[in-house]
Specification:
Blueprint lengths: L11 E2 L16 H5 L68 H11 L22 H8 L3 H9 L7 H11 L3 H11 L14 H8 L6 E4 L5 E4 L1 H6 L13 H7 L3 H4 L3 H18 L4 H13 L1 H8 L9 E7 L3 E12 L8 E7 L5 H20 L1
Antiparallel strand pairs: 1-3, 2-3, 2-6, 4-5, 5-6
Helix pairs in contact: 3-4, 3-5, 5-6, 9-11, 12-13
Amino acid sequence: MDATTHAMPRATTYPSPSDTPPDVAPGPDSASAAAGNPAHLGTPGTPGTPGNPGTPGSSGNPVTGDAAGATDTARPPAPAPAPTPAPASASAPAPAPPHDARRPLGDFLRARRTRVAPEDVGIKGGRRRRVRGLRREELAQLAGISVDYYVRLEQGRATQPSPEILRALADALGLDAAERAHLGTLAAAEPGRPVPPVRVSPLLRQILDAMPGFPAFATDRRLDIVAWNPLGSELLGGLAEPARRDRNNARYLFLDPASRDVYPEWADRAAEAVGQLRVAAGRYPDDAVLTALIAELADRSPEFRGLWDSGEVVMCAAGHKRLRHAGAGVLTLDYETFHVPAAPGETGLVVHVFGAAEGTPEAAALDRLAATLDQRGAARD
């Protein structure tokens, strides 16, 4: 396939990755979520009291399921015993404390230990087990740390575990490379870390323009599709037509039934989206827009909530994906991802590029689709 033979319209972007694009209406729950509705994505429990490590297996699960970016709610002041107005110098209720970035660490550890079968690590399961996966004390023993310390890790009362402890926990849980990196990110998370702005540069637009024969698009950490070329727009269900699809890929996957037609392997794409959002939430726990998106999806999609609770972690890579186009049919395409950092050490945009080997039916289908778009553009001109 000759990527230089199609003179197509320029790549498209919408202004700010931080905002909803002006021609895409937000979901009905977006406003309430952005106003401070945290994504409680697990079974809330009572946080441990400093100095009280708790007893494994005791009643009342102290592990919270708060999503990254959620905040605790401050208790309202007690009503005054008399109708006499409070003096002007009376102090106002204390503001809600900032989000404790340690909670996602405990939530992730809990989710991963529930996925480890005791038999796989040499522990007899037995018929009387009341918990799925490993118990806390079992994971602590496998990792070679005290049960008390592990309980405090899950409760968010132990901070900054050493690299040796993280490595021991990762080994005991059988984490892969992406999950190990995520565990390290959660352990080192800093509340109040600024969220770097992500913008589409003129050079990136030129790059997308320069490969009209390859479907391509760029996403930010929230999975907003912020730039694309015409072939990428067409292949993904009409990015250039906001009435056809939401430009946030996670919202599109979980809230738009049309996504199941575009993605024949929808379950795999959905798991990828949740895993990518989890990585972003761990790195930027104070990203209010990301937190609102997670809250909205958890509220509106049981499938999203189930995947989130599983603790899945996915980082963009390369491989093969199947997509269905109304005119071209089902295409199995190769893809590569390229990272464009927002700043040194920070995440930014991910550019996704699809293609097919020369001489394959998929390459011929992409050529025909690109030629059709050329003709359509020429007719408009």
